[in-house]
Amino acid sequence: MDREIAPDYVNTTRNRRWLMIVAIVVALGILVFFFRKSLVSSLASDRIRTGTVGTGDVENTLTASGEIIPAYEQIFTSPIRASIKRILITPGTRVQPGQAIIELDKSLTLIEFERYQDQLELKKNGIDQLRMKLDKNLYDAEISDKIKSLNINKLKADFEDAKRLQKVGGGTAEDITRAENALKVAELEKQQLENDLKYNRESMGASLKETQLGAQIEGKNLQELQHKLRMADIVADRKGVLTWVNENIGSSVNEGEMLAKVADLGSFRVEGSCSDVYADQVKAGLSVIVKINEAELRGMITQVKPAVKDGVIGFVVQLDNANNESLRPNMKVEVYVVTSKSTRTMRVPNGPAFTGKRKQFVYVLENGTAYRREVETGLSNFDFVEIKSGLKPGEKVILTNMNDYEHLEEISIN
User: Is 293 left (phi over 0), alpha (psi -120 to 50) or beta?
Assistant: First the structure.
C-alpha cells in the first residue's frame, strides 16, 4: 500500500538539488575565471619592439650578396718571359698616363729578337741566291732553245738538199728519209725544250713566292716580338690608383702572368651573386638596392652571367651613384634585387614577428594590452611588410618574435 511522501522531505530534497546545481555553476564559473586568467600573461615593455601601421610603397626583394669592384680596372700582364728587376711604384699610389710601374729584365728576349733578325737576313739572302739561280737556269734554257732552233733550220736545209739531189740523180731515198727523221727529232727536242722553258718560268715564280712567304712569316714573328718588347715596359696609359703589384723582385714571370692592377677609384660597380634557385627571377634591367652599413644605394642589373657555378648565379650592378664616398674596393655588401613593387599600400616595419607566411598571427597593442590577430601579408623587403588585411593605419604591432606566447589571446604589457 503506497503512502504519501511527507512535504518536509520533498522540500528538503528539492533544496538539496538546487544547492547542488548552484554549486556546480559556481565551480564552473571559477574554472572559467582561472582558465581565462591562465590565457592572459604579462610582458615587460622594454622586451618588445613595436611598429606603427602606415601607408607607402613596398618593394619585394631577393636577398643576395655582392662585392664592390672598381668600374674600371686595368690588369697588366707580362708579355714575355722575364724577371722582375725593379718596382717603381708601391700599391696605393696614384699613377699618371705614361708613368712606369715595373721594370722587367728583357735580356733573354732581346737575344731572341736578335736571333730572329739574323734568321730574317738569312731568308732574304736565300731569296737573292734563289733568284740568281733561277735566272741562270732560265737563261740556259732560252739559249738551248735558240741553239735548237738554229739546228732545226740547218736540218731543214739538209732535207731540202737531199730532195734536190735525188731529182738530179745525185741522192737516194734513204738520204731523204734520214734527213727527214733528223729534222723531226730536232723538232720534238725543241718542243721538249720549250715545255721545259715554260715550266721553268712558272716554277721560278712559285719557288720565289714560297721563299718570300717564309721570309714574311719570319718578319711577322720579328714584329710580334718587337711589339712584346715594347709592351714589356709596364706603363700606365690612364689615370688611376695602383691597387696591387707583384713585389717579388728577382722572381721569374711567365708570359701572361699578372704583374699589377690599376683601378679608377672614382667609380665603382657591384659584382652580385645569389642562389640559382632565383635564376628565373634575376634579369637584366631589374632595380637593385645595395646596403652599405646604414647607407642605401640604388642601381640596376646590367648583366646576368650565363654560367652557374657551385649553385650560385652572378650578375653585375651599375650604381646610380657610382662615386659615393662609402664605396671601397673589395668591400662586401648586402644586395637586394627588386622583383615587384606595390605603391601606396598599407605597410608595417619588418621584424622577427613576420615569418613570410601569407596568413599569420601578430599582436596588436591597445591600451597596454596586446591582442592576438590574424593578418594577411603581401610583398616584403628588409624594411617593410605589406599588409593586405587584418590591420588598420595607425595601429601598433609588436615586431618582436612572439613564438613563446603564440597560445595566448591577450598579453598584458607592463
Answer: left
Contacts (Cβ under 8 Å, ≥6 apart) of 321:
297, 298
Helices (H) then strands (E): counts for the chain: 3, 19
One-letter amino acid identity for 273?
S
Q: Is this model's pTM higher than 0.90 or not?
A: no
Task: Select from 380, 397, 393, 389 the least CA-distant residue to 57.
Answer: 380
Q: What span, in angstroms and rounded, lies between the C-alpha atoms of 173 and 179?
A: 10
Number of domains in the chain: 2
Please check whether residue 285 is in contact with residue 299, taking contact to mean a CB–CB distance below 8 angstroms: no
Distance of alpha carbon 320 from alpha carbon 36, whole angstroms: 57
Q: Which residue has better confidence, 136 or 37?
A: 136
Show the domain range for 123. 107-231
Q: Which residues contact 149 (CB under 8 A, 6 or more apart)?
A: 190
- CA dist 219 → 206, 208, 212, 229, 242 (Å): 20, 16, 10, 15, 36
Look at 120-124, 273-277, 332-336, 398-402 and tell me which has the smallest mean pLDDT.
120-124
In one letter, which amino acid is 195? N
The Cα–Cα gap between 377 and 26 comes to: 44
Verify that 46 and 117 share a domain, yes or no: no
Q: pLDDT tens digits for 66-103?
A: 998 887 788 888 888 888 888 888 888 888 888 888 88
CB 66 within 8 A of CB 333: yes
Residue range 202-225, pLDDT digits in tens: 777 677 777 778 778 888 888 888
Shared-domain flag, residues 114 and 48? no
